[in-house]
């Protein structure tokens, strides 16, 4: 939830989904909020990830 507030949507989506996958009943009070947050974050955008590092030097 902190990552979402910091507008770090990718890590927020990944970590919330992972927490729900590991233990879908980790908190009776927070599970609905976590599910709603994952739903609100939606799917990651369909954009190419830029190549970083030695592979990018050849371009």
Question: What does this 3D model show about the protein?
Answer:
Helix 2 crosses helix 3. The longest helix has 14 residues, at 9-22. The protein is 49% helix and 0% strand. The model has no long low-confidence stretch (mean pLDDT 78). It is elongated, with a radius of gyration of 15 Å. The chain is built from three helices and no strands. It has helices at residues 2-5, 9-22, 31-41.
Output the keywords.
about 60 residues, mainly alpha, elongated
Low-pLDDT windows of residues: none
Task: Bin the helical content.
Answer: 40-55%
Largest sheet: none
Beta-strand portion reads: under 5%
Number of strands: 0
Oligomerization status of the protein chains = single chain
Mean pLDDT: 78
Q: Helices and strands, in N-to-C order? A: HHH
Structural class: mainly alpha
* Radius of gyration, in angstroms, nearest whole number: 15 Å
User: How many H/I helical runs?
Assistant: 3
Outline type: elongated
Q: Compute the separation of the termini in Å.
A: 38 Å
Brief digest:
The chain is mostly helical and 59 residues long.
